[in-house]
Amino acid sequence: MYCDPDPKRENATLVMLVRNYEVDDALASMRQIEDRFNKRFRYPWVFLNDEEFTEDFKRLTTGMASGDTYYGQVPAEEWTWPEHIDREHAHERMRQMEADEVIYGGSLTYRHMCRYNSGFFFRHDLLNMFDFYWRVEPSVEFYCDMLYDPFKFMKDNGKKYSFVIAMPEYPLTIPTLWETTQEFARKYPQHIAPDNAVDFIVDGGRGLDGEFNSCHFWSNFEIGDLNFFRSEAYLKYFEFLDQAGGFYYERWGDAPVHSLAAALLLRKDEIHHFADVGYKHSPWMRCPSDDESHFSGRCLCNRHESFDEHVYSCLPRWFKISGRSAGSMPYHGDRY
What we know:
By secondary structure, this protein is an alpha/beta fold. Helix content is 35%, strand content 13%. The strands form 3 sheets. It has a 7-stranded mixed sheet with strand order 3-2-1-4-9-6-10. A 3-stranded antiparallel sheet has the order 5-11-12. A two-stranded antiparallel ribbon has the order 7-8. Strand 1 (12-17), helix 1 and strand 2 form a beta-alpha-beta unit. Helix 1 packs parallel to helix 2 (55-64), helix 4 (108-119) packs parallel to helix 11 (254-265) and helix 6 (177-187) packs across helix 9. The relative contact order is 0.14.
């Protein structure tokens, strides 16, 4: 049982889904998170793996962490084919997607991972101890000091989901995801939030009747409220998607699933863009655009190479529907 000795900390954790052979990449990400943020707050780390962690992995990551460390194995039944999936048809679809050069189109393991991140990570016994999580991927880079507690910010401001980068998803990976989501919304209208962010994912003000523009929040960085994922609305949504089979017959990623859920099941003021975070998950990076972040020495990155400036960035769309502008001052803990 986790017991936080520091009452100033929120009930939150950093979480990483990682394999034993990725230990060097895991340590590299940890080093940056610890230096840029966690050495001041000492939040715990939760590591999850579909196999048992090695003792070397545990010793090395425990040595890098400033807070407690916890190691869990993904239940086998959550990292395998659901019973209702036609495996022959799924393999046929995978072969076709691989032939079409769809990224990870032929990978079964990738599909297991996306389904797990979409519907199960937040149910793990180790995550059940916490209210908030910060997802950290192996081999990512952080360019800016975070001098305040983002978990406290999320809690104090009623935020349920946050992101850094927004971009279009590969359409060939999700040909029926929006159609399935529309079916869910018609069947369960009580779960669609008022003042939601549907205009982020649909152009032209057409709402749920419109066509998905493929914009999504890049989920390799996300800080969120675990109770949102544990909610009846989200669980119903995931179960509906899971029964449709698109995690295997297509290649639905957890990023568009999380994004569509946040856009429709939350109010848009419950979603937050961390404009003061500098971050890279290859091949894309983003860098805060304000002068203060750079002239103060808080950040070291090239804002002119930021994905925010890329033609494919969906961030301008987010600014438009959320009422903020690209020039808005990032949050630095005590003000905007």
